[in-house]
Amino acid sequence: MDWGAFKISILLSSCTVALLAVLALMIARFLAWRHFWGKSVVEAMVALPLVLPPTVLGYFFLRFLGRQSELGKLYEQIFSQPLVFSFSGLVLVSVIYSLPFATQPMLRAFEAIPVSVREAAWCCGLTPWQTFWKIELPLAKRGILSGLVLSFAHTMGEFGVVLMVGGNIPDETQTMAIAIFDKVQSFDESAAETMSLFMLMFALCLMGLVNFLVQKRPQ
Could you list the pLDDT tens digit for every one of the 219 residues in the chain? Predict the structure, then answer.
């Protein structure tokens, strides 16, 4: 069992979820309550990582975040290290790649809140912020939590984008998925089997948590 790779996977997933807890929540609420020209295009762009092959996304990330890109050069000038093949680069691409997994459940949860509920809160004297904090968040909490858990699970299991952008650097960018691939490549079937079974049980626990969160229980 490669606990170093598991630690990197947990840390990467945790950082990704922490950022998505803010970014995905803002996007989901905005799309749920706003109607504007081009909204369908914005929703399609947010959902795009769901249908694009990981290698395609990885290629574009390398082009726009690599050392020859303006963003890559700026990052390297500021932090004295390249953005690609680093843990920071992995976090950035993981946030983008896992964005729809967090946004979609949150969006559906906010859309399910009747407009009349918000209007009633305003009539009672609540400000928009108070309405969001005291009314919308509690009503949408199942969608929010399930979106975050799904994003965590998806980041834990991602392989293609992580390998292309982060490489395979032990204790820095080598996640569990890549470590399992390495074991298979080196014909270490025993280690690959152990790690795969561990990840299978871990994923089952996460999906069970998602089902528990979205299940409507009697009041």
Answer: 777 888 888 999 999 999 999 999 999 888 888 887 878 888 888 888 888 888 888 888 888 887 778 888 888 888 778 888 888 888 888 898 899 999 998 988 888 888 888 778 778 877 778 888 888 888 888 888 888 988 898 888 888 888 888 877 888 888 888 888 888 888 888 888 888 888 888 888 877 877 776 665 544
Domains of the chain: 3-34+53-212 (1.10.3720.10)
pTM: 0.84
Q: Which residue has the tokens 């909204």?
A: 39
Q: What is the CA radius of gyration of the chain?
A: 20
The Cα 67–Cα 95 span in angstroms is: 20
Contacts for 117 with CB less than 8 Å, ≥ 6 apart? 135, 139
Among 11, 22, 34, 30, smallest CA distance to 144 is for 22
